[in-house]
Each structure stands twice: as C-alpha cells, then as structure tokens.
Amino acid sequence: MLDAPRDADDRGARSCGSSSSGLIQLSIGVCAMKAKTHSKPMRAILSRLERSLEFRIVVFDEQMILEEDITTWPRVDCLICFYSTGFPLDKAIGYVKRFRPILLNDLEQQRIIRDRVLVYKQLQRHGIPHPPYVVVDYERVSRGEAHFEEGYDYIVFNDKRLNKPFIEKPRDADNHDNWIYYPKNAGGGCKKLYRKQQNSSSSYCPDVHSVRKDGTYIYEEFLSTFGTDVK
Asked: Does residue 166 surpass a pLDDT of 80?
C-alpha cells in the first residue's frame, strides 16, 4: 500500500516501526505532486524499497499537500520531496523545519533551480564553466537605470555586448519558452523552443529578430552542437 495514511493515528509522531520479520523499518515520506509520485518509474523505485522490508513508504496525498495544514501531514523518519508545477514548496519547507525529518534532497536549493539567474550565480561561485551570458532586466531599462541597445546581430546591456547567435531564456525556470536568435549571415530569424506539443518542440520564425522585452531574460552565447540534442 503506497498511499498516504488518512487517519489521525497514522499521522502522529514518527517512530521506527518493525516488519513481520522483526526488522526495524524506517518510514520514508514521498512529498510531491500526484503526477510525479504515481509515475511508473517512481512506483517501481518505491515498490523495490518496500519489498526490502526495511522501509515503510508513505506517499503524501496531493489534496492533503495542497489544502491541509502541515500539522496534519504524516510524520516520517526520512523525506523525499521535490518541486514541480503547482507544488507548494514554501509549505513543504515549513514542514521540514517544524518536524525535521532526514532530507534526501535539499528543499532550499530547489528555490535556486527555479531561478535561472541564481543558477548561473551558483555556477560562477563554484567555478563551473558556462557560456558567456548577459542578464537584462527590462524594468530597470524602462526606468532609465540601465542602458540597452539592440542591433540586428547583437545586443548591448550596459557595457556588455553579445553577438548573435544567442539564446534567450526567461528568468523563471518553469518557463520553457527559450528563443534562439540568428545573425543575418546565418539566415537571421528566430527559433522558438517550447515544451513538446504533439510531435513539435520548436518552430522557426524568419521574421522575428527583435528580442522580448517584457521581464528579465538571460542571453547566452549559443553553442552549436551540430544537430545533437543536448539537455
């Protein structure tokens, strides 16, 4: 049984249980949206853990996660918890701070991976190589707090110039609408990338050459992979 317990007794203080074979069992909570916890790969992993008789798996119910106070959530020894669209990350962080289960992945760090600007700062902080990039906050530009210049084949933000081809990424990592802009000598235009819809995940727009200016974007030198799809 992999569904979260619904009665008050099962939601009480956590403790190591024991299996019918006498082995000490650790309770592992899985806190994520239903599409993730009920996916075929996840259920295969959880089933293997449960068959070992060393773990009691507690999958948190999605409705409970979204609607109920953290004091009603099951208490567990260990917690696997990860963000996807619609998941209340701050609420889950509050649960961890209050009940202190052993965390198998860092929830605070998941805030960082949702913000592409913070991800790039982490790369710099740890000396991880990355392509040249420029972060443009168009609200600052509109208030006259920063200089932005655009030509067909380049952009300039303050004193940083980036030549096409470059890829434009929204700051919000949940937004997968990334656009690639090409210079005139490569045919110009823009390729729009997006989450796969039916059999399509991109479209080429030959007449689009001006960048978007409705928020904060990262502009990164586009590295050719000669047709290889690199994630």
From this structure: yes
Answer for the pair 102, 124: CB distance below 8 angstroms, yes or no.
no
The structure tokens listed for 184 are: 């005139």
Distance of CA 34 to the CA centre of its chain: 16
Instruction: Give the type of residue at 8.
Output: A
**Where do the domains of the chain lie, and which CATH numbers do they carry?**
26-113 (3.40.50.11950), 116-221 (3.30.470.20)
Sign of torsion over alpha carbons 74, 78, 80, 86:
positive
pLDDT for 131 equals 84
Q: Any alpha helices (H) in the chain, and if so which ranges?
A: 34-37, 40-51, 62-67, 89-99, 107-112, 116-125, 138-142
CA 45 to chain centre: 21
pTM to 2 decimal places: 0.73
Q: What is the pLDDT of residues 21-68, one digit of tens each?
A: 566 789 999 999 999 999 999 999 999 998 988 999 999 999 999 999
- For the segment 65-74, what is each residue's pLDDT rounded down to a tens digit? 999 999 999 9
Confidence band for 6, pLDDT divided at 50, 70 and 90: very low
* Encoded tokens for 67: 């609607």
How far is Cα 74 from Cα 61, in angstroms, rounded to an integer? 10
Q: For residues 27 and 17, is the Cβ–Cβ distance under 8 A?
A: yes
Q: How far apart are CA 199 and CA 194, in angstroms?
A: 12
